[in-house]
Amino acid sequence: MKTMLWEDNQLLLIDQTKLPDELTYFTCKNYKDVIQAIKTMVVRGAPAIGVAAAFGVALADLAGEDLEKAAKEIKSSRPTAVNLFWAVDRIMASDFPLEEAVKMYQEDIDTNRAMGKHGAKVIEDGDTILTHCNAGALACVDYGTALGVIRAAFEEGKKINVLCDETRPLGQGARLSVWEMQQENIPVKLIVDSAAGYLMQQGEVDKIVIGADRVAKGGVANKIGSLMVALTAKRFNVPFYVAAPMSTFDSENSIYDVEIEERGPEEVTHYGNCCITPKGTEVRNPAFDIVPSDLIAGIITENGILDPL
After folding, report:
1. Architecture of domain 118-306
2. pLDDT in tens, 191-209
3. Domain extent listing, the chain
């Protein structure tokens, strides 16, 4: 399942805001369309954002636009996922932006499959695996990071079960991860976010695998709620793994210096088009939190399973 396609000098993105009800594509004819797609979460997930951003620069180049200006605007679309900045810088350093973007597209698929192969080694036959948010094919070009590990274990013939927490406020676990698992007949059950602790306490979770939007000194930044899952896993001795490509690593900075994006209140006050709060409710909506290194059993990468930074 490819999240994006390059056709007729246009970038087609699966509109993830419409899933699982509709499988439709959002067409990016210029780099500003790519920015809109990133900001509105038509495309989401650190690796997917990175590759989409690369094609955004390529679109600007094809149109003969000011690449420095386009690159700066694309970088400003979301602040936390390091792949966005890495991808734009890589494209800007290339003499052939479109060729480089196409190369990055294929690299992402190859990287995810390598990650899956390494990560499958920690999954045992009969395991129940909890995952948070969506770090699957939809968060990448194809295959996925955390869900790529699950896919690889399943493809090896291991009898596994998956628990997806709903991942409020936008329900990426409920809407996207469950949908991905169902497409491949991987046994999956949906739980509310607050049920994860109880199920770990009852011994019903064997492993946890999540993705990451940035890996840096001291830990990882990932979808809000990851910290609570990690703390509970530590309490009940459930191994907590992070699956992330090397492009998500920021080895120069502390994870505590990363800007944590705050998004609009309507994501919390509404579920879809339905308002679920009293009128005038004030909201805090941080999109990410930080999981400290001491809570992480290992970081699954295309180069193997590494210790946290």
Report:
1. 3-Layer(aba) Sandwich (3.40)
2. 999 999 999 999 999 999 9
3. 4-111, 118-306
Assess contact for 178 and 166: CB atoms under 8 A: no
Residues 111-146 have pLDDT tens digits of 999 999 999 999 999 999 999 999 999 999 999 999
Portion of the chain with pLDDT greater than 90, in percent: 97
Whether residue 8 lies in the annotated active site: no
E strands, 84-149, where? Answer: 128-131
Stretches where the chain sits below pLDDT 70 are none
Show the tokens assigned to 227. Answer: 């910290």
Domains 4-111 and 118-306 share a fold: no
Q: Which is catalytic among the residues 213, 257, 294, 307? A: 213
To which CATH superfamily is domain 4-111 assigned? translation initiation factor eif-2b, domain 1 (1.20.120.420)
Summary mean pLDDT of the chain? 97
